[in-house]
Target: peroxidase
Amino acid sequence: MAKKETHVVHENVPLTMFPDEPVTRAFDAYLAEETRGGVKNVKENNPPPPDTPLDLSASIYPIEKGPFDGSALKTLVATDPQGMERGPSWNVLLGRRDSLSANQGGANTSIPSPFEGLSNITSKFSIVGLNTRDLVALSGAHTFGRAQCRLFSNRLYNFGGTNNPDPTLNTSYSTSLQQICPQNGSGFSLANLDPTTPDGFDNNYFSNLQNNQGLLQSDQELFSTTGAATVTIVNSFASNQTAFFQSFAQSMINMGNISPLTGSSGEIRSDCKKVNGS
Model:
């Protein structure tokens, strides 16, 4: 595989553009791939925002004079080509081949859910060869972006059937989120994943966890799970942004190396969102 240096995602690009798809082809389904065999299109149930660049190859294909591996393209397009001070840099390995199918079941079961406990999420990372430090570092991508109310409103009113908010949620923060996400309101309103610096890539995500201001349950559990190995890593990243950036870059490489399709396996798509000939 050839290498190309890139750097951190731009704050306005969805995080789903990262190359998670080696995990049982789940990423293809997560990105609403169109495939042979009548595989259900995930975007019917979870439509992406209107600015999500699903047809990534449209602009680059004529320039490249041929197909460009979609997995790498998804990563390269999801980067900010200006201002490396915004985040870490790493080498993106090019040449990964794209899968011939999309696995919606894999998307539903292999990719961690925001409602899952830390032990389940840790197990899913471990299955694909990622360790606890990878888990914490990659979770730090929630240093910017937005989440819909339906992904965390269970924490605001009746967490675990208690008729009370999640006790690990900062009281003032919970009140502010209730204004955005009123009970029985729209599940599609948006809240910042990082309430302090919502549009910048930094280590404030980890400081937020220390202050019980993790938006998603899966985020806050990194710090609030008593005795968890993740707590020490969260504290380290909160106090040392350079350590976070270095770990994030390495973990992105580690994630990109999960069972890549090479050689004659898979194909190089000419349209990233569907297999060739479909």
